[in-house]
Amino acid sequence: MAHDSISPDAAHREQACTGHREQACTALRELLDLLAQDAPAEQFARPAAAARAAGASGAELTAIDEATQTALRVRSTLNQHQRREAELTALFDTAGDLAALRDLDAVLRAIVHRAKLLLRTDVAYLSLNDPEAGDTYMRVTDGSVSAAFQNVRLGMGEGLGGLVAQTARPYATVDYEIDTRFKHTHSIDSAVLEEGLHAILGVPLRQGTHVIGVLYAADRTPRAFTPDEGALLSSLADHAAIAIDSARRMEETRAALVDLNAASQTIRAHSEAMVRAEDAHDRLTDLVLRGGDFTEVATAIGALLRGGTLIHDADGTELARVDADPRTPPARAVAASRASGRAVPLDGTWVCAVLAGPELLGSIALTGRADLGEADRRLFERAGVVTALLLLLRRSAAEAEDRVRGELLGDLLSLSGTPGRLTARARRLEVDLALPHSVFVAHGDTAARQLLLSSAARAARTRHGLSGLHHDHVVLVLPADDTGAAARALAAELTQAAGAPVTVGAAGPATGPEALSRAHAEALRCLSALRALGHTGRGADLPDLGFLGVLLGEDTNLDSYVRRTLGPVLDYDTKRGTELVHTLRAYFACGMSQSKAKESLHVHVNTVVQRLDRIGHLLGPDWQSPERSLEIQLALRLHAYTGAA
Known about the structure:
Layout: H1 8-37, H2 46-53, H3 58-99, H4 104-118, E1 123-130, E2 135-142, H5 147-150, E3 153-155, H6 159-167, E4 171-173, H7 186-195, E5 199-207, E6 210-219, H8 227-259, H9 264-289, H10 294-305, E7 308-313, E8 318-322, H11 331-340, E9 344-346, E10 349-356, E11 359-367, H12 374-414, H13 419-428, E12 437-443, H14 449-462, E13 466-470, E14 473-479, H15 483-498, E15 503-510, H16 513-532, E16 539-541, H17 547-552, H18 558-576, H19 580-589, H20 594-601, H21 605-619, H22 626-642
Parallel strand pairs: 15-16
Antiparallel strand pairs: 1-2, 1-6, 2-3, 4-5, 5-6, 7-8, 7-11, 9-10, 10-11, 12-14, 12-15, 13-14
Helix pairs in contact: 1-2, 1-3, 2-3, 3-4, 3-8, 3-9, 3-12, 4-8, 8-9, 9-10, 9-12, 10-12, 12-13, 14-15, 18-22, 19-20, 20-21
């Protein structure tokens, strides 16, 4: 008699499994809630601890741990994006303040306060140079509690700030008190000690080539400032210099109206030019804030200044061109503008270096305006500041995208995740892994790693591929039909960008994550072979390496090797019924002796000579060199063994 009832043990086990699944779901929901609440990182360990205490299985705990790590990575990425957004928003707010400049002290206080917030320091301050006294004095502070520090004066070359003011170069120290690079004085050291400062970053405020002061960020505990923080503080310093320059010019205009009544018309024209410059600055800044691209900015600059406009990045790549012929940025003019901080003329074209502090971001050129007046020149220079903001925004977005692409590349080559999830992640980055892709591994003995990595990222973006650092190698996954040709082109491109020889080993094409992972191993073998053979600065795949590629290849294709080596001779024999292949075998069998070959072939020696000439025409003049002859002899043996056609 059948029984439908379930035993108590089975019911208990089913209830326990249901409970564990509910625990896992609860843990995942709690992780999502923590992400939504922007909870501290330490709280993300709670769901796993709760599941472990509740007796979840090993597989469920593993899944919860993986979900926790993923949630922490998402949290880190979101925090980075929020920080970048805050930095750019502050720069845009500063630009807006300058456009509506009314109170210089208020603008400088806002810039110093933003520097303190963005660099997350305890103190920020700004000093201005006193040409008559020959020193630099404190103008604005934020976060300072020491009266002595707020009134300190630094002689040129004294302390960190005096050195920045004297050399016009940024300086940073992890701990000022023990840093021997600076000239320590009692007045400066006592003020710094009373304020309790240790880490200090200072950047110059420039007006052209003239340094008018220093902008600082400082902490009361030792810390190392990053290059990005230096660039950000330099951008704020440039805005402060513009504010001071604008305020000075407005004061000069008001003084001229009082003292020079006879020059009222000239003053009115100057005032109108200032208004026009501020209006242009407003329009360009608003264009950037609304998400305008480089072409829109170039169009606006050309319309304001009635000329053609070109925008290039620091590498000389054209970003936009409006009403102008293509041309490369003149290096001499860009260098002169960078050194002077002013737009400079060259053969009827005005060139302005686009800077973020001392860093060169690119350049803009104005054509068709050889008669550019001082007011329009200033307007053109302000356009350079707005272009710098746009380039910084573009770089921040590119860096974020490169990080995401690099993470995907690592997971793809390590097969960390299911093929379906990897393919879906790639598709969100406009990379279709269902299409054939090749893997390229780049190495430069003398090339700077970071420069090589950034050059590879730029190459991957332009080709809709992936790039990143994987197992201490720069790796790219790019769409490519002819892998060898693509490797040679990529090696040349990276060598030029890095300024040093870059060797590229390649493999593919392959389709799908698993095949690409195998291709990566083959590309590494190809790179090792290239370096062992002394082919530095070249790019190739294994078939390009001849018989060595056959030996190193995981899937050896003997027919393909024979075709690559003997193809022209095989085709000639097939079409004309000749015996060039047979002649080659006899020639090599006789130790490359024509007289012995003619006896083996039972033909006249002239016939042997004619056949060998024909073979040289088909295979190239170097076919009898040691390296080529070795490959040809191997191909002849493989042809006899496999019957390859």
